Queue: 2 jobs
Job 1
Amino acid sequence: MKITISKFAGFCSGAKKAYEITTNIAKENNKNLHILGDLLHNKDVIKKIESLGVKKVKKVQDIKKGRIVITAHGDGKNVFDEAQNKGVEVVNTTCPKVIKIQQLVKKFHRDNLPIVIVGDKNHKEVKGINGWCNKSAVIISRLEEIKNINFDKLKNAVIVSQTTQNLKKFQEIAKVLQEKIKNTKVFNTVCDATRNRQGETRKIAKENDAVIVIGGEKSANSQKLFEIAKELNPKTFFIENAEQLNLKNFINLEKVAITAGASTPDWVIQETYQKLKTLKS
Ligand code: SF4
């Protein structure tokens, strides 16, 4: 069996940076070090962070003193303000690409332009971006949701995307919004890492007998990779780690590809690869 690991599988630059900053700080001094939510949407990474003594909190108010890590997904302005008011030191690992969207949203909100975010309203990154326009954004995750928008009140708009949005879906939604809203400014803020990963996933899904997508169940970008690959190759399987790999699904196959979301660490990809290699064919 020929096993191909996608060249874009695993940690993106933002996830890598957040992981390295947090683990390095924790190894030096984990006293009163807290993290706001999950560093990355991956159980193995969360276990590792916990093993270093970093305490997870849901909100800044849960901390009496110390430091708080803001994750790569970023957070709203109110979170930074609350930390400052409490005298809690912020370790900001927000990905620079997310910061760029936050700044766009902040600027145009100040100019009184309505903001539309194409993304998942329950995702941390989207909630954080919305926190830079006083939570006023219209959030759309699917084309069908456009019918719920009152366009009489929306004469102009600034449209941005969650960084891990499916690029094709973002373009479709932005196109329909442009037809319905008189003046729009569209910023394609799907990040390069996501674009490359999705493009490569399409390619490997067509070229292989089966595809394995490794990612956390809460990882939006991993779920998107699964959607993309499954559409092109019905033999696509989503797993969180090697333990979940069912070798029976790959018996007698000649070519299998492995890809992984931006929050999946290399060691999980390697363990999956090694397990798959044990299959004789
Ligand atoms: S997916 Fe892109 S935007 Fe998100 S953390 Fe990674 S590099 Fe940054």
Note: The two ends are 6 Å apart (CA to CA).
Job 2
Amino acid sequence: MRLESPTTEKGAVDACGAELASRLAAIGGRVTPLPRTSRGDHLLAEFGCGASQVLLLGHFDTVWPVGQLGRMPLAREDGRLHGPGIFDMKAGIAIGMLAVRALLETGAPLARRIVMLWTTDEEVGSETSRGAIEDEARRSDAVLVLEPSLPGGAVKTSRKGCGSFEVIVKGVSAHAGIEPQKGASALHELAHQILRINALQDLSRGVSVNVVQASGGLRSNVIPDEARAIVDVRAPTADAAAAVDAAFRSLQPMDARTTVTAKGGFDRPPLERSPAVVRLYNEACRVARELGFDLREGATGGGSDGNFTAALGVPTLDGLGAVGDGAHALHEHIEVASLADRAALVAGLVARL
Ligand SMILES: [Zn+2]
């Protein structure tokens, strides 16, 4: 089965989802598609029964276009399986399914329902899935996120919150040669603003603020009346994110003839290393030790849907998926030998909760 699933191609994503749904049903899942018009349908699958639930969370959309399999074919080499989307994060879904299948096959009664939510728009910010993710998380005692692990298999106990702002400057246009004094250049003003924005960055506190795009001006002899910049922002705590947000909202023009406005904000709140996160990590460490390996932890600047669930205060452990490397890169691969250990880890964790 070769089913590519770039976020932007609903037809391809739904074809992949149909196959996934039939495999979930085959291992005993009660599958409910969550239909979407602009993105692929998300899939919810429930196993067992009980008043409370544990949520396994991930996504089956990828960043790779249809046809990428022709350029980076599925290939097994030196214990690694290469392919687009395998590490981020189709192997994570396989790990979750293997874990649940193993738990069901032991015949031991489950203390609570297991709910899987596999979404289709994580790679573009989860606009059409965030509501469903938060609803399921609120009903869950814990959320296990099957996103890729950190190098060597470490799980992610903190993720920065991330977002972007668009800064729009309006000025006054004028002929640059005949009457420049009548103009107020939006580009000059934006240049000042960019320096102020850059000063918000505080890497020692883990706050990154980077202007990643800027544009303005129409012709070589016209003072531009509009300019824009896009700014990528990351912050490790909700407080730091709020401070960055407030700074953007209060940008003031240097030149009073111009106006400066900021749109946007943090799309994903930070996943903070809270006591709830640490408790879940410690539980996972105990399971890993029983299985004969050490489970390390780490932080990342990238966001995932685990950011949403952790911000609700629901214990969340992220990066429980595959061991490998090269997410969003041509060398994307997983370590095949690690799959069974990761599935055992997830199964043990679900059983222990
Ligand atoms: Zn991912």
Note: The CA atoms of residues 74 and 83 lie 5 Å apart.
